[in-house]
Amino acid sequence: MDAMLQDVVAKYNYWIYVVLMMIGFYAMIGKRNLVKKLLGMNIFQTAIILFFVSIGVKRGGAIPILDKYKVLESGVDAAQIVNPLPHVLMLTAIVVSVSVTGVALAVMQRIHREYGTLEEDEILERIGE
Amino acid sequence: MKRRLERAAEQPLGDSAIVRTGVRLLVPFIQLFGLYIIVHGHYSPGGGFQGGVVLGSSFILLALAYDLKTSIRHFSLGANAALANTGVLIYTGVAVLCAIFGGLFLDYSALDKLIPLGPVEWRSFGIFLVEVGVGLAVMSIMVSLFWDLSSGGELDEGL
Amino acid sequence: MTFTNLHLYALATPLLTAFFVNLLGRLSRNWIAPLVVLSLCFSSVFSGVTLFNVLKHGAYRYTVGNWQPPFGIELVIDHLSALMMVLVSVVALVATLASLKCVERELPGREHLFFTLYLILIAGLIGLVLTGDAFNLYVLLEITSITTYGLIAMGKGRAPLASFNYIIMGSIGACFYLLGVGYLYILTGTLNMADIASRIAGLDAPAALATAFGFIMVGLWVKMAFFPLHSWLPNAYSLAPTGAGLMIAPLMTKVTVYLMIRVIFSVFTPSYAFFQHAGVQSAIVWVAAAAIVCASSLALAQRDLRRMLTFIIVAEVGYMVGGVWLANTQGMTGAILHIVNDALMTLCLFLAAAAIYYRTGSLKLENLNGLYRKMPVTMAAFTIGAFAMIGIPPTCGFFSKWYLIMGGIEAGQWGYVGALLFSSLVNAILFFRIIEIAFFPKGEHGHGHGHEPIRMEEAPFLILKPLVLTAIALIAVGFGTGPLVNNIIRLAIPAGF
Predict the structure, then answer these.
(1) Measured by CB atoms within 10 angstroms of the end CB, which terminus of chain B is less buried, N or C?
(2) pLDDT tens column, C33-59
(3) Terminal CA-to-CA distance of chain A, rounded, Å?
């Protein structure tokens, strides 16, 4: 029990990401409102961004911005610098999630114009009519 | 608290002189900052996407403080579409030019054959060109996303 | 112009043209058709030469921007990816000829937007086929998906709702894939596929590796609409504008199946994916069998031609996933061959549906009455496509099914073999029902005007020509199966497997 608790505390970033991801997943699958589904999708993507950013972190690491002259003089100590690659990857993932959100919002506006509502049940009712 | 909310609901939004003047003063500085981020993107934090978003946000701020028409007057629809496409064309065009001049795709040092500046300098300058392209595209796409979503695609009345 | 960059010109021409189409198409729509067709012609030629190059000189690798791997993005041009590249660009070209006509009628005034998305989608698909970098694959997957969302949402009526469901499901799939890549990155510290593969070999973390593999596979299965995760596909594909459906239906799922093969071959080795977990492997083949049976049965219940075809696509995904996971050479050959064949068969049937829809404005099965006399060429091509789907010998569908069944027998997976035979039977029922309705018109004599001759009303030339071409290709690929398998597909499957 104690060992497990320590495991949870030591890897708290993974637990936070899992919890966030499940919240997003629940909203995407369980909620009947399209806006809530979209928000769930955003939370889901944020969880993954958190996961990636947290794996690049080092204890006491500096930000990965290097001064050219200092590097030429003394070289780079990789252990002292946070790994920038996951952050760069997440920059791309953020761009992707922004564009998916944009497309989804535009699609949602068309749905609203067509059916006058964003509640899935009401839309299905209107389709059935 | 409740009374304050009611009073807020009665007041018309977006007609505040303070907000308008503040935005009018802020927008040039925001745009300057956006340009700074784009131009310094290839050797320090920042870059095309971030700078483009900052530039785009200045127009969005304009649309929020005044109205959609005002921001369209400052940044016409045609210019928006043209800039979005040119931005991406600059990026792809640079990549294809590199390939045509005998290098690999996006291998900027090949552009040395076009304008002799030195392969190392071209490596830096090529990224700069790409960042400018990305910045232009991101700016116009952010603005048009806001325009279309806030007016339901009608582009007449915004938020 | 040297040969080293050819495959990237095949990608860059549609990408560059997309933005010219958007710019010039605003000014005048006369620019759109020649630009689109020309760029895709160039793209097909470049891909063809690339395939020829690979056949002659063997596979090669390419670094974008001259940043050496594992730091730069690497492209892999081997037999499999070159074959897929030719498939994507040729199918796109053929589909485009027809979709020009459909879009002109269905989306007047929005053609430039449609074709911008369309060309970016093609560039994204070619990129997906080429890439050798796990994260790059995610980005390209999202590029193709976002353009597809847009294209589908351009349809009428319920299309935006179908597109929204696709957005939700597609994002879940992509995020799962990304998570899997994240786990791989923690384990190996690299994103290059070949580099990951070499580092996995010396790794002692079976649970983490299995998690990564599971996440990546589930993500790709959602994207390819593998059976229990398929719910978004039928609505999205059948409600999309006809022009978009022509291109999306044959290519999207097949390219994703290719990606699954790519991940299994290049990131995890086949010995890891298939033989480490023998129980999982046979379980997946069983799921594939269930997918085939369920999707075929659901197809029987449809009253709309295009909707019926979408359920057949879901069943075909079951064929291919099952074939890959049979884990023997026969099954793998069958799966890869079926990617090619199924893209052509789906294209043929969707083109026929587009032609019928263009003339009659309806795809309800009962409205196909007497169509053989009205549109003889269209229906002849449709019949060939149907025969290929069923698997009748001179057409190509027979050969890939043959390989799949042989693989199933070799692996002792009788459930899968049974499902394949069942599905062929159901396809036969489905298509002969349509052929019967279309060939023997009912109730013609009952009406007073029954005896007047039905006017021949073929679809326009631009739709008819690609349709006939595809039908001929179905038979040609059937006859060319031997060389195709011996010269390309056998070389694409890693040795010792």
Answers:
(1) N
(2) 888 999 999 999 999 999 988 888 888
(3) 57
Interface of B with C in 130-159 (CB under 8 A): none
Task: Burial-class residue C285 by CB neighbours within 10 Å (0-12, 13-18, 19+).
Answer: buried
Beta-bridge mates of residue B3: none
Q: Can you give the pLDDT at residue C91?
A: 93
Distance of CA B95 to the CA centre of its chain: 21
CA distance B79 to chain A (A): 21
Model pLDDT for residues C193-236, shown as the tens digit of each residue: 888 988 888 888 888 888 899 999 999 999 988 888 888 898 88
Torsion of CA C335, C149, B78, C157, to 10 degrees: 130
Q: How far, in Å, CA of C86 to CA of C68, rounded? A: 27
Helical H segments across C240-363, by residue range? 242-262, 270, 278-300, 305-325, 329-360
Residue C62, chain B, CB below 8 Å: the answer is: yes
Across the strands, what pairs with A33? A119
Return the axis-axis angle of helices C79-106 and C111-130, rounded to nearest 10°.
170
Q: Which residue in the set A34, A55, A99 is minimally distant from C164, CB to CB? A: A34
The predicted pLDDT at position C450 comes to: 47
**How many beta carbons lie within 10 A of that of residue A49, not counting itself?**
21
Give the ipTM of the model, two decimals please. 0.93
State mean pLDDT over B139-155. Answer: 84
Distances (CA, A) of A93 to A13, A50, C485: 19, 11, 39
- The burial of C113, by beta-carbon neighbours within 10 Å (0-12 exposed, 13-18 middle, 19 or more buried), is given as middle
Residues 21-80 of A with CB under 8 A from C: 25, 28, 34, 37, 41, 44-45, 48, 51-52, 55
Q: Is C361 exposed, middle or buried (0-12, 13-18, 19+ CB in 10 A)?
A: exposed
Predicted confidence (pLDDT) per residue in A68-95, tens digit: 788 888 877 777 888 888 888 898 899 8
Q: Which residues of chain C does B107 touch, with a Cβ-Cβ cutoff of 8 Å?
A: 65-66
Interchain proximity B107–C26, CB inside 8 Å: no
Cα radius of gyration (chain B): 20
> Residue C286: which residues within 8 A CB-CB, separation 6 or more?
C413, C415, C416
- Residue C116: closest CA among A96, B22, C107: C107
- Total H helices, total E strands in chain B: 6, 0
User: For residues C65 and C74, what is the distance between their CA atoms, to the nearest angstrom?
Assistant: 10
Cβ separation C66–B89 shorter than 8 A: no
**Backbone phi, psi, residue C76, to 5°:** -115, 120
Chain A interface mutation, best of B149, B151, B154, highest count of A Cβ atoms under 10 Å: B149
Please tell me the distance from the alpha carbon of residue B44 to that of residue B34, in angstroms, as a whole number: 14
Contacts of residue B14, defined as CB under 8 A and 6 or more positions apart, other chains included, come to B64, B65, B66, B67
Environment class of C219 (CB within 10 Å of its CB; exposed 0-12, middle 13-18, buried 19+): buried
Q: Which DSSP helix (H) or strand (E) runs through C76?
A: strand C74-77
3-class state of residue C494 by DSSP: coil
The Cα–Cα gap between C458 and C455 comes to: 9
Closest CA relative to residue B94, chosen from B76, B106, B102, B84 = B106
A89 interaction partners in chain C (CB closer than 8 Å): 135, 191
| Chains touching B, CB cut-off 8 Å, 3+ pairs | A, C
CB C230 within 8 A of CB C166: no
For residue C170, what pLDDT band results from cuts at 50, 70 and 90? very high
A91 Cβ under 8 Å from any chain B Cβ: yes
In the numeric block, which tokens belong to residue C488? 């390309």
Residue C317: pLDDT band by 50, 70, 90 thresholds?
very high
